[in-house]
Amino acid sequence: MTRYGAMFGPDITFLGVERCDLGDPETYRGADVVVLGAPFDGGTSHRPGARFGPQAVRQACYLGHDGSRPSLALRVDGLADLVVRDAGDVETYAGDIETALANIEEAVHKIAASGAIPVVLGGDHTIALPDARGVARHHGFGRVSMLHFDAHADTGEIEFGHLHGHGQPMRRLIESGAIRGDRFLQVGLRGYWPGPDILGWMAEQRMRSYEMTEIVARGLEDCLTEAFAIAVDDCDGVHLSVDIDVADPGHAPGTGTPEPGGLTGRQLLDAVRRACYELPVVGVEVVEVAPPYDHADITAALANRVVLEALSAIARRRADARGGVEGRVWDPRLPLLEGRG
Amino acid sequence: MTRYGAMFGPDITFLGVERCDLGDPETYRGADVVVLGAPFDGGTSHRPGARFGPQAVRQACYLGHDGSRPSLALRVDGLADLVVRDAGDVETYAGDIETALANIEEAVHKIAASGAIPVVLGGDHTIALPDARGVARHHGFGRVSMLHFDAHADTGEIEFGHLHGHGQPMRRLIESGAIRGDRFLQVGLRGYWPGPDILGWMAEQRMRSYEMTEIVARGLEDCLTEAFAIAVDDCDGVHLSVDIDVADPGHAPGTGTPEPGGLTGRQLLDAVRRACYELPVVGVEVVEVAPPYDHADITAALANRVVLEALSAIARRRADARGGVEGRVWDPRLPLLEGRG
Amino acid sequence: MTRYGAMFGPDITFLGVERCDLGDPETYRGADVVVLGAPFDGGTSHRPGARFGPQAVRQACYLGHDGSRPSLALRVDGLADLVVRDAGDVETYAGDIETALANIEEAVHKIAASGAIPVVLGGDHTIALPDARGVARHHGFGRVSMLHFDAHADTGEIEFGHLHGHGQPMRRLIESGAIRGDRFLQVGLRGYWPGPDILGWMAEQRMRSYEMTEIVARGLEDCLTEAFAIAVDDCDGVHLSVDIDVADPGHAPGTGTPEPGGLTGRQLLDAVRRACYELPVVGVEVVEVAPPYDHADITAALANRVVLEALSAIARRRADARGGVEGRVWDPRLPLLEGRG
Amino acid sequence: MTRYGAMFGPDITFLGVERCDLGDPETYRGADVVVLGAPFDGGTSHRPGARFGPQAVRQACYLGHDGSRPSLALRVDGLADLVVRDAGDVETYAGDIETALANIEEAVHKIAASGAIPVVLGGDHTIALPDARGVARHHGFGRVSMLHFDAHADTGEIEFGHLHGHGQPMRRLIESGAIRGDRFLQVGLRGYWPGPDILGWMAEQRMRSYEMTEIVARGLEDCLTEAFAIAVDDCDGVHLSVDIDVADPGHAPGTGTPEPGGLTGRQLLDAVRRACYELPVVGVEVVEVAPPYDHADITAALANRVVLEALSAIARRRADARGGVEGRVWDPRLPLLEGRG
Amino acid sequence: MTRYGAMFGPDITFLGVERCDLGDPETYRGADVVVLGAPFDGGTSHRPGARFGPQAVRQACYLGHDGSRPSLALRVDGLADLVVRDAGDVETYAGDIETALANIEEAVHKIAASGAIPVVLGGDHTIALPDARGVARHHGFGRVSMLHFDAHADTGEIEFGHLHGHGQPMRRLIESGAIRGDRFLQVGLRGYWPGPDILGWMAEQRMRSYEMTEIVARGLEDCLTEAFAIAVDDCDGVHLSVDIDVADPGHAPGTGTPEPGGLTGRQLLDAVRRACYELPVVGVEVVEVAPPYDHADITAALANRVVLEALSAIARRRADARGGVEGRVWDPRLPLLEGRG
Amino acid sequence: MTRYGAMFGPDITFLGVERCDLGDPETYRGADVVVLGAPFDGGTSHRPGARFGPQAVRQACYLGHDGSRPSLALRVDGLADLVVRDAGDVETYAGDIETALANIEEAVHKIAASGAIPVVLGGDHTIALPDARGVARHHGFGRVSMLHFDAHADTGEIEFGHLHGHGQPMRRLIESGAIRGDRFLQVGLRGYWPGPDILGWMAEQRMRSYEMTEIVARGLEDCLTEAFAIAVDDCDGVHLSVDIDVADPGHAPGTGTPEPGGLTGRQLLDAVRRACYELPVVGVEVVEVAPPYDHADITAALANRVVLEALSAIARRRADARGGVEGRVWDPRLPLLEGRG
After folding, report:
1. Is E301–D207 a contact, with Cβ atoms under 8 angstroms apart?
2. Torsion angle of alpha carbons F138, F141, F143, F147, nearest 10°?
3. Which residues of A touch C45 (CB under 8 A)?
4. ipTM score assigned to the predicted complex
């Protein structure tokens, strides 16, 4: 397994961080985070295009691609304070979902086994199966909880005659034992899928799914607090899966199955930040960015910032565990310039 | 009057529900809801394109077009628990507004007279006049109140030398006696139209119009509660008119006269849901979706979900009147999976 | 200095207000407001296109271009109750930033010196330097505070080898003494720029910058109240600078450096309204609208409404200073039609 | 009848030529050409948007809007060597085709009666009826032949229950006697409309229609030569009607009813040039530019150049009638710089 | 095998022709042509989106969807003079290319075996393999020649580890014996793929490939005449495969792998017409229309007309075999209206 | 002068060729061709965006970015048979045209002095001045002729108060003596600029400019033959400057100043091929690709192929000078597969 580079277009890295080659362990030894592209969209049920997600998300930023991004809010540099490498894309072919699953799982497992957090850029949500499995193989089946932001439950049974696709990874993960059903937290669901049968199965697994109605009624913060408590109950790590369609189509038009009525971009960024700051995150994936439908690249930009928020919060979490930054732990009410002069 | 089918493009139905033919009463006998397309945009003062609204709204969904949409939030299926039929489009010609008005009114009246709720897909807002008149002819002039979501009051006097157009239907409705001025509730108004004269006329009619400033200051929920109380005071039914431009242009760019500063998609869906759940709705229209300006079809998708929210809430209202679903009436704080297993 | 007219396309005015010619003082004598286009985008670090901003913002409205816009919310007509003139565009050439700066400053100073409030339509944010300098030259260096809505601090030192560009105007303004650092209020900052060095310089200047995290934690209204108090402390006027990218990319995709997680359009309009109603505004600029990236013109429409909100609020502030409208001062909770009949 | 200005957006003129007011004959006395906008698209059978054609065509040029355009090819300035005025737009309302027809005919007749050539910017092709009628009323019914570039014959009988619309103007013109059927030359027809009945009627009128198959087989030049000979046989003038959809959709995507397989932009420009140079043109119209569907404004740019080619060729025709330019009549093989030094 | 309907969106038919169900032979008994959608894009190497091709091509027409299209050029109605049915889409899943191939081949074979000509709407070019195999299974392996319009040879060996994909169908067809290599005619190749090895293999098969350089040098008509002669030499039928990217990207932007320098839309239509008029066509496919990249739907419109040209020419070929239309065989130089009156 | 990398976005190379660093001569020693990005658009008079041209052109290809492109037509690999390196972008800042000119000239001169052919990717046409000057400084002022494909002469005097910009480089080149006026060949001019004065100056310089009218009348091939003869008369090398707007807007919409009526993409590619095959080309530039206006990336794709045609033809010219490929010199009529087996 040598470095594949980018499948679609030039071989670039996330905002200019250093390359690594999964075939050469020296290149990512000691990394805190390894970015991996999974440009697979053969599992989409409707609009394709997520294959171009990794490349779009890697570069959707107007600043120099210099491997550094100091966060105004968190006072750390998620790319420079952590050791971050980009392994390029896993070769995946839309027409062959089985091979894609196997290759992605293998690549993710390598990363996780090295001690780094894999940050996987989809691709459609099919890749959550091999991604979270690769993570769980290292940390232990049933020892990693799932925090899943999405408009859709992705717990389908068989679709188009297949077990795999972007509507089913969460079911397969639970069935395989990789993730416990009662440590599966879903945030942002809405709309008209799935039907009662599948919801019944989900309930039987004791999943906890926050539909937007509940989120609006109770407040997102309250729901997250509850979910986070479940996530760390008898689990060693948390896998964060962000389907960009959890955001409202106004904020994320460039996706395959847009469902109106979602989170604002601001809410999504804050929720991801909080998750990565408060929880022991061991894997991150950002999926379903479909550039062909993305006006002015705003969806790719949002996904790029989701990654940066995650990395910044992980860095701050670690810094605060070591005593804080500038002598204090993170306080969201602290004015930007206070203590800077 | 035989089935017109679709004027622009193939003859499809709303998400695959069964066809009916207004010329053949048997085809919609016993229907709870009949969908009707009114692809007229000859009344637009600026960007046209709403003629393609009915077709766009009917199909703006990534799920199978199978005539079923189980609502996660409301635990009913608005398309399957109700008897829903689609009568196709009324033939309307942009260049002849008078004939369009007459034909739409006749078609709506047929539907209302059959006992079904007409759900009319515009087209520009001109069609509110024949739509609400068709409804009122059945339920009684002055017996149906109007709940009108819009950025604009649509109470113009004469424009471009004409009495009819998308800026004037609400005035014509009140003048004709179809709808009482003091049972006319407007939500979401903003911007710079109309001027003092027309506002004066509106005040004289004792209309109640909630401009966004008041909505922000008081909260949308509070305003809706007040408006709903007026709507059912000495009226037998409520006509719900949703101009998609009540949503902010970020959430609904594909419309003719976008006015910044509107509701979010989430707010609109929740408001429609609440209206159809709490009020005795007898007519619904969703207008001003202009596909030529709609990036990634997000406006059409929002309108599609407005229709589904309305139908789902109507279905749930009826179910709760019969004793509830799973033994209880609707509770927005109920977790998605509770009681599902 | 004669009237330049429009650099790009036909010579039009903001929504049809009367023309004036800065070379002929008679044409704007007694004006309350003079609109000026500054179609310069040679200072952009990433996406260009803001050169077409002035023309797009002037006409992004579906109503007649008749020089009148009665505000529903404020019950004044910002274009007709004030004397508003449009001086056309300053000739600027993207390739020569120095000349552009000089010409814009000169034109703005002329307007300010006449007693009118200059409303400058960018162009990229580079123009804040000559704009605010032109204002300060008239009102006194250090006598005008800055209220700056933006995703970015724009306080860079040297970029691409240059002192000037859209990332540096705020630093140059403070260095030149035109604006005091401790009367510099920034609202809406977020993201990953600038780094610690520049933030340190900002802190040393005693700037007050509200990053989105603080805004979310405390609430926008609370932050504004605090900022407004600083703005009028020992200053005679306030310069309002609105970079449209302070709004979320979902609401303002058509801009050069979109940063996810910003204000909604509604929040921006309300904040601008409040600023112009509560503060003694002496200059306004709206910048960074980049039409090539603007789907369905929604960003230009938002900027157009930012201008109208500013003018309407200025008009209402003056009216209320004279005793109010219809006998009372502005109340955001007042129903639209109350007192209209 | 006073100057209407522009219906949609600011009141601009074609590339900055002087305004005139049809209500004030002094303003266009002695004009050679008067440009008139006819922003009517209520006659479209499919995609609307041509209402924005006049404004788009007037400004679709990257050069300064200064009322001058020296033609490289023809060595004349179609805007400056002729006296060209722009009368703004006729107020037309999409919903009322009858009034639109009457108002356009009246305005065109005024122009023709003044001795100027009306150059009408559509709008959809419906306007050919009042335009050519207005011209024929001045020059004499039956005395003006028609040279009609189009993908479609536009000779429909009754459509959508109406006599008028963009598929029928040519039939109405012949029926009314304004244009003789045997002096009706159509170039560029193709596709699948109309059917045998209408074609039979056309043959009975002795129209001469060049379908693309014949054009490809014989060559465009040969067909034009033949058509031109008919056009001037026992007629005093030629009316030139250019539907932009005569060009291939690759060259003119922004139109209502695009039919693949048309002329290239180059062919269209050369054909228009030749027509206006060789024939006694008394009226020109360019229609069916639909900006909502126009990527990068290339269709509007093509239409703008069609107008300029027409005016340049008219100017050169007149110059050559007076002895030529630089001592010689136009020669397409003359190198650009020959005789310039 | 029952009627699948449309996979993506509503179940429509090609321009409104009657439906048939491949599971019910009665529904297509006696059909001359059966249209079949193959919405598979799992074989694309770059831009996906061709899955939406069948639906886009079926409806990309501004005329009524009434199952009739009288050809101006050919004086027949390809939809009404032939018995044309639409079988809907074959269910195909992007992630499983093997099943897609099998299902498409089976469906095509059913059609061919019924005596009808299958007209298959892709989908990506992968489908040429099952399509042509399905045809050849009925007519005899080696008895059907291939006329292949494309920018690319599609003769790749193994790509992304697979034998199947849109770059390889032509190799698989020859290897399988379905089509003889020396009866494989390719028109429109250009660009930089494949390399010498694959070209060597092609030469060994005695394929005849017309690259654009040869086409420009010799003329398209001359090349076609030569190719047609080979096609009917010792073969019983011709399979026509049109990859829309054979057209220049200016005429067909909406495709997956656009290669500049191709045919014009006009050339493509004329070539298809000539092929279907002169050759015994037994199968037709039109592939690689990718709606997400298609501005103003011009690529889908071109593909729609490719189908209509094919059907019209087939109809005219049959009519001329029976003695002609209006007493004569087709003559491209015949004026449109001659003999119509 | 170290490697700048890419100014806008990631540091990639043309289709994956090897990097070089102009600051390190070893990295390009022996190169035949060095690609250089000049992402400057501060000289544009209308639409900007060409700053993103270099990155867009480098990657606008659906094939693997592997540094190899075997030409079907020319039977050579322009990237692999030549030694091609990519030096990244020259840092240029839109707001400072003088520095941009100096830096580009210096970089180009370094490349030319090394013996390699600089292939410069613009940027706007301003860069022709430093590019051709850098080339001429090495080969001798007056010793390099210019072959200039463009819609515009680019021979303006002073514009916007400046000597430099994208409308003036050709004048500055002649004035400076870098290029002789009588060895300046322009192909494809059209439209309405410049006026008589500038044309007079051009004639005085004895430039030879082929306007489209002459090209259509005489045929492009004939004009090129004549131009090529002039180009090599008493000159040692030819500089090829391709403004993508020489192509028709239908083929190249993504450019700053589109002028209808241009060459087809096919014509442009063939002309570039012929020029580089027949002439001793010493410099190449491809400019004015403006991605913000480029639908489906077709303009960038065309520019990418212009570069590849140039490199392929240069390679074939060299191969044929050495005896040909497969024993013969290039013959455009040779069938693709002949001699391949």
Report:
1. no
2. 90
3. 62
4. 0.97
